[in-house]
Write a structure and sequence with these properties.
heterodimer, A: 332 residues, mainly alpha, 0% strand, B: 287 residues, 13 helices, disordered C terminus
Chain lengths: 332, 287
């Protein structure tokens, strides 16, 4: 892999992040003046300071001062971002956005990566099998399943799971990431609690995406089956199992790697609804909460972090892909 | 008109497309005729709440004694209008941007594609959430404009690659030699060649737009209509403890079933048409 090509990819991703920063800046600028006025008045009252000083403090909190000219606003915003400061929540005035991100991001990444891994692994198993035995009963079952799950939106599945398994059967808790009576840390009760709370969200993602993976893998594996090296492997008298494992599955996997990143972005997008239904304290949950409370700083901060996460995931997938498949050299 | 007839011929032959077509027709009839026949009455009557289905209330009543079925019918109008408007805007936007990018090429192409990729990478739903708090979503038109603003990316990219492959075909080269305008080339020459592709996408976009709009409604971020399916789901989950209350299950399930059925109809029709028009899939099936 050429250094120059890698550099170019990184540069493009970096520009994309910059654009995301610009976007969130303009979203922040759309914050209604009344929200800022209200906050300033409230601060002036509770802290017994002048309105002028309160405005100053609000500007510091939200990284945005509507009284400044545009370029100064942008400089202020970018400057604070460079210092790693996403601002302070407008509702919980003592909590910074950074703290909320630090609390929420791990849960989202945890649930999404586990779900992605599980559905990917099951999906490629099913897909390979479907490609290998074209006339088995598996094919119509998986096809129908995939159609149904692509028709039923993830949040509907989430609601149904919640109603059935949390409220009616009481097998799983219906909110939070762990019980309040366990101490977070490296202990068994905590892990068990985390597992129980994450189970239904993970199940939702797996149910919605496993069919898509299976179909994608099937398509990819079928095209690999037609390759010369598979025929050559047959001719060499290798066992079916070896061919399936080492020749078909490995090569068919490659194109799916890029889908992983796209899927990650897609899942993050959907997580706002799903986390909200399970009251699971991840990024999506806080975005939805912040928006219903009109917490503008929190919203833009979470949006920026989410967008950056997706962009980085895409970059990583791109780089891994070109590393894994020597036939693809990233050039241009 | 000739094209519509052709489309109909394809739908008639393809079983999947036919099923999808029937389902969608059902919803379209429900949305167009339903509100004319039934009267929406949102007065709260606590004495009549959580009724089971009866002749008077086909699907029973909700937590405030209002007819579930009538709400569902009015909701279908909301949902469908947002879906169809969004799909129209998205197709126009995506087609125009993709066509420009593909036809002009060079640096215009690079810039447009960079912007397109930007829109594709930044997660759509969180942005929609944020925007819907900044812009007051008060009617289907505004709603669908916002939705389409963030869903044209994939289509534009696909249209561009379609056009790139058409660009060097003889009939386009001939048009260029005859000095016909770009607009003429786009709409009179290229459009007919990719219209089936656009038709399939139109349905897919309706599907995802309905999905997104119901989702936003469910979060209570576009609360302009109490009968929208998303709003109904949200009310059923939050207000009534529909989750705890078995008597509210019909109220909770009816918008869910309708939504799923509608989505299924879209997917069947779109997949069926895709099979009918896409020569690559056709040949795969034959072999």
């Amino acid at each position: 892999m050429k250094i120059k090509a890698v550099f170019k990819k990184v540069l493009i991703s970096f520009t994309t992040v910059l654009c995301a920063v610009l976007l969130t800046f303009f979203l922040l600028r759309l914050t209604p003046g009344s929200a800022i006025d209200g906050l300033a008045r409230q601060l002036a009252q509770t802290n017994g300071i002048t309105l002028e000083a309160a405005y100053e403090r609000v500007a510091k909190m939200v990284n945005y001062d509507p009284r400044e000219p545009l370029h100064k606003q942008l400089i202020r915003y970018v400057n604070e971002l460079l210092h790693g400061n996403l601002g302070t929540s407008m509702i919980y005035q003592t909590v910074t956005v950074n703290e909320i991100v630090a609390k929420a991001l791990p849960w989202t990444v945890f649930v999404l990566s586990i779900s992605l891994l599980i559905s990917f692994l099951i999906g490629i198993q099913l897909g390979t099998r479907m490609a290998w035995k074209r006339n088995s009963i598996l094919e119509p079952i998986v096809s129908i399943y995939a159609t149904i799950t692509s028709a039923v939106p993830g949040f509907i599945i989430a609601i149904l799971l919640l109603v059935i398994f949390a409220y009616n059967l009481n097998w799983f808790p219906y909110n939070g990431a762990y019980d309040i009576d366990v101490t977070p840390g490296f202990n068994l009760p905590f892990f068990w609690s985390v597992f129980k709370h994450a189970f239904l969200p993970i199940l939702t993602y797996v149910i919605t995406s496993v069919g898509g993976w299976a179909l994608a893998m099937k398509g990819s594996a079928i095209s690999v089956l037609g390759e010369d090296y598979v025929n050559a492997a047959y001719a060499r008298g290798l066992s079916d199992k070896t061919i399936m494992k080492n020749y078909v599955r490995r090569n068919a996997l490659l194109p799916l790697i890029t889908s992983l990143a796209m899927n990650f972005g897609f899942m993050i997008s959907g997580s706002a609804l799903i986390e909200n239904i399970f009251s699971y304290p991840g990024m999506g949950y806080y975005i939805a909460q912040a928006s219903s409370q009109r917490d503008y700083t929190l919203m833009q901060g979470l949006l920026l972090v989410t967008a950056t996460a997706v962009i980085i995931a895409n970059l990583i997938a791109d780089l891994i892909y070109s590393k894994l498949d020597p036939r693809v050299s990233i050039e241009e | 008109m000739r094209y519509v007839k052709e489309l109909w011929e394809e739908i008639k032959v393809n079983k999947k497309a036919m099923i999808g077509f029937v389902i969608l027709m059902f919803f379209i009839l429900m949305a167009t005729i339903g509100p004319r026949v039934l009267k929406l009455d949102l007065t709260i009557r606590f004495s009549e709440r959580y009724q089971m289905p009866s002749w008077k209330h086909i699907l029973g009543t909700d937590f405030a004694g209002r007819d579930t079925f009538v709400q569902l019918v009015y909701g279908s109008q909301e949902v469908l209008s947002v879906g169809i408007l969004t799909a129209t805007f998205t197709i126009l936007l995506g087609f125009f941007i993709g066509a420009l990018s593909g036809l002009i090429g060079k640096w215009v192409d690079s810039i447009i594609m960079f912007i397109t990729n930007l829109f594709l990478t930044i997660p759509q739903f969180p942005i929609l959430i944020v925007i819907s708090t900044l812009i007051k979503v008060s009617n289907p038109l505004v709603f669908s404009l916002i939705l389409s603003l963030f869903s044209w990316g994939g289509l534009a990219r696909a249209i561009r690659s379609q056009i790139l492959s058409l660009k060097h075909s003889e009939f386009i080269v001939a048009c260029k030699i005859m000095n016909l305008s770009t607009m003429h080339i786009i709409f009179k020459e290229i459009m007919p060649n990719i219209i089936s592709y656009i038709a399939v996408n139109f349905i897919f976009i309706i599907q995802s737009a309905v999905n997104a709009s119901v989702g936003l409604m469910m979060l209570g971020l576009a609360p302009y209509s109490p009968t929208n399916w998303g709003m109904m789901i949200s009310l059923a989950v939050q207000n009534t403890g529909g989750i705890f209350n078995p008597r509210a299950y019909i109220y909770l399930l009816s918008p869910i079933v309708c939504l799923a059925l509608f989505q299924l109809g879209c997917i069947f029709l779109a997949n069926g048409l895709d099979e009918a028009f896409n020569p690559r899939i056709k040949s795969q099936k034959g072999s």
